[in-house]
Design goal:
Blueprint: E1 5-11, E2 27-31, E3 40-51, E4 54-64, E5 71-78, E6 84-92, E7 95-98, E8 101-103, H1 104-116, E9 121-127, E10 131-139, E11 144-154, E12 156-158, E13 161-166, H2 175-180, E14 181-184, E15 186-198, E16 203-207, E17 215-219, E18 222-228, E19 230-236, E20 244-246, E21 249-251, H3 255-258, E22 262-269, E23 272-273, E24 278-284, E25 291-297, E26 304-312, E27 324-331, H4 340-352, E28 359-365, E29 369-371, E30 377-378, H5 381-392, H6 402-409, E31 418-425, E32 448-454, H7 460-469, E33 473-477, H8 483-494, E34 500-507, E35 510-515, E36 528-535, E37 538-548, E38 551-561, H9 570-590, H10 597-604, E39 614-621
Parallel strand pairs: 3-15, 27-28, 27-31, 31-32, 32-33
Antiparallel strand pairs: 1-39, 2-5, 2-14, 3-4, 4-11, 5-10, 6-7, 6-11, 8-39, 9-10, 12-13, 13-24, 15-18, 15-23, 16-24, 17-18, 19-22, 20-21, 25-26, 26-36, 28-29, 28-30, 34-37, 35-36, 37-38
Length: 623
């Protein structure tokens, strides 16, 4: 079948195979015993567009081989949250060649065959929830090779604060990979990051907490962000857009955080290390009403269309007045080493924001679980100061017995008080009880679990399933985040009432394949993204219902579902990713996989090749 091929180009996406992982951050992987000079990343150019409720990220890279022999390039970077790959392109003889879907059982074999025959081949693999690895062969001796990767993901807005992350800092949770690979994480010539925000609602400010040299500009309601590796003469910003407003409280970074923040004017190029996440916050105007937005895709003549419904609730939930109990369950394992300072700062801020009638416990887990507080203590200033110091003094250097930490944290809860468990971890359980089904213990307690997911290689499927089982919520945290702002967002949810047993109904038009099916609780400022298929066209009524403090609450609006809508084909892939993600979590929650899901999962393969067992192939025939 392949004898008449001059080139073969493969792209592979998988979920369960355990492959290589990066050691410290994004970059080119080289075996540690490989004694020839490393491949070079000449260029790394990132373009992001955020519009219509989702973000499209395109990464162009140029690799250079300084050796006198052809080599294989393996580039690794953390998996972005909820991302679905939409394109992988390799330039051959100056022309872009795209990948197509192929059964995974054949793709690796074909890639290796073509590589051994000296033909051009490209391979993209997903190492579970941790990393993407892009393999390219050959990078010719003393020549360059260009590749492009594009992925899409829903835009994230919480309590009026939007957040986009370009992940570069690897989580450090794969010890086997750490012992095998070394990483070249430096871009030697050109690094650029350009983001265009085209918001549906007015935005008042944009902030990049860990990239003070970013150039931020606004024109006609659209916002642009630019970063490059220029070494510049800089002028300080005036700081007007540095503040985040959350629940009518204004958070302004500490003076030392703002000092030196500047705009890039001019300068020469220098090396750029791919070891720090780029986090972009954007703040909507205050006091905007609740909103519902509909994005659709339907080809002419098609019976079925795809929709994405984004619900952004208003702020009409009341403050909870009675005292609450807080249990902090903190990961002190070795994989948290690079994230622990952020964890400790977050805990200190959370304790400082408690009410005087609140109580807290602190549980630590590494090789085993132990309690730092020896029972609940009052949230007075003396206890807050004492335990903030104790948490900060800990040196993380153990394995990860997540189960024992949860089990100890769930003990001795007071049924007469509202209890919340704050779990802070990278989620890589590797000792003690590690079987997912044993984590069902969370269902036996009347407690909401709120999870801070630390790092880009965190076990998000496990942590989100735990959170959903308790009707809590999960927040991803980067070392580049405004940790104080993240804590304020989280506590704003716990401090206010929530909409319990939320349900969405769409009346007046036929819909199917809705995901997620179970919304659980909706917290203050929490954005809901509902996806599915619709049949026909016409006006439909969208109803969100639930209970607040035991009382029924109903919100409704109307939308026109169009007969033809061709502007947003990307949402088909987002629907497929969302469907697979929620089915995976459902299988975790029920501890079995239903055979009847196979047909439904197969139908998603047409739209996504990120988490299913289909891979990609491109054939280029001889001319």
């Amino acid at each position: 079948m392949f004898n008449n091929l001059k080139y073969l180009f493969l792209t592979i996406f998988l979920i369960f195979a355990v492959l290589v992982a990066s050691s410290h951050s994004a970059g080119l992987l080289t075996p540690k015993n490989f004694n020839i000079p490393k491949l070079d990343i000449k260029k790394h150019n990132v373009n992001v567009v955020i519009e219509d409720g989702y973000a499209i990220t395109t990464v162009d890279q140029v690799f250079f081989n300084p050796n006198n022999q052809d080599l294989e390039a393996i580039y690794s970077f953390p998996v972005p949250d909820k991302a679905a790959v939409s394109e992988f392109t390799m330039w051959i003889d100056g022309k872009p060649i795209n990948g197509e879907v192929l059964e995974k059982k054949d793709a690796r074999q074909i890639y290796e065959e073509q590589k051994s025959n000296g033909n051009n081949a490209g391979l993209t693999e997903k190492n579970k929830y941790k990393t993407f690895e892009i393999s390219v062969y050959p990078v010719l001796a003393n020549q360059t090779t260009k590749i492009r990767l594009s992925y899409i993901q829903p835009a994230h807005v919480d309590t009026g604060i939007g957040r986009y992350v370009y992940p570069l800092e690897e989580g450090g949770v794969d010890q086997q990979a750490l012992s095998f690979w070394t990483t070249n994480e430096v871009v030697s010539e050109e690094f650029t990051f350009d983001l265009l925000l085209k918001p549906a609602y007015p935005v008042e400010g944009v902030r990049l907490p860990n990239h003070p040299n970013a150039v931020v500009s606004e024109s006609l309601g659209n916002w642009s962000v630019h970063i490059d590796n220029g070494i510049s003469q800089a002028t300080p910003n005036n700081g007007e857009e540095k503040a985040l407003t959350i629940n009518n409280q204004i958070y302004i970074p500490d003076e030392e955080d703002v000092e030196g923040q500047c705009n890039i004017n001019s300068g020469s190029k220098g090396v750029f290390s791919l070891d720090t996440d780029i986090v972009v916050y954007y703040r909507h105007k205050d006091n905007l009403p609740g909103a519902v937005d509909l994005v659709t895709y339907k080809e002419p003549g098609a019976a079925r269309g795809t929709f994405m419904l984004t619900l952004t609730p208003g702020m009409d939930l009341d403050v909870i007045q009675q005292g609450r109990d807080w249990v902090f369950v903190l990961d002190v394992s070795g994989s948290m080493e690079g994230k622990y300072a952020t964890l400790a700062e977050g805990v200190s801020r959370a304790l400082g924001n408690m009410n005087s009638n609140d109580r807290f416990r602190i549980v630590l887990f590494g090789d085993r679980a132990r309690e730092l507080t020896q029972g609940f203590v009052l949230a007075n200033q003396q206890n807050i100061d004492e335990y903030s110091r104790k948490v900060s003094a800990i040196n993380p250097n153990e394995s990860t017995d997540l189960y024992s930490g949860l089990a100890l944290g769930l003990k001795n809860l007071d049924s007469d008080r509202t209890s919340s468990l704050i779990l802070v971890t990278d989620g890589e359980a590797n000792v003690g009880v590690t079987d997912k089904k044993n984590f069902k213990l969370i269902k036996n307690y009347d407690v909401r679990v709120f999870t801070f997911i630390m790092g880009n290689s965190a076990n998000r499927p496990l942590l989100k399933a735990l959170t959903n089982a308790s009707n809590g919520f999960a927040l991803s945290v980067s070392n580049s985040d405004d940790i104080i702002g993240k804590i304020m967002l989280a506590q704003s949810k716990v401090n206010f009432e929530s909409l319990h047993k939320a349900q969405i109904n769409i009346l007046g038009i036929k819909t199917a394949d809705i995901t997620p099916k179970n919304l659980g609780n909706v917290y203050r400022g929490q954005q809901l993204i509902i996806m599915g298929h619709y049949f026909g066209s016409g006006l439909a009524k969208v109803v969100l219902s639930g209970k607040i403090s035991g009382q029924e609450k109903v919100y409704s609006t109307q939308f026109d579902f169009p007969d033809v809508s061709e502007s947003n084909p990307e949402i088909e892939r987002l629907w497929a990713y969302s469907t697979i993600e929620h089915l995976t979590q459902e299988s975790f929650a029920t501890f079995k996989i239903f055979l009847e899901k196979r047909r439904f999962l197969a139908s998603t393969i047409f739209y996504t090749f990120l988490r299913c067992k289909k891979w990609m192939i491109l054939e280029r025939h001889q001319i």
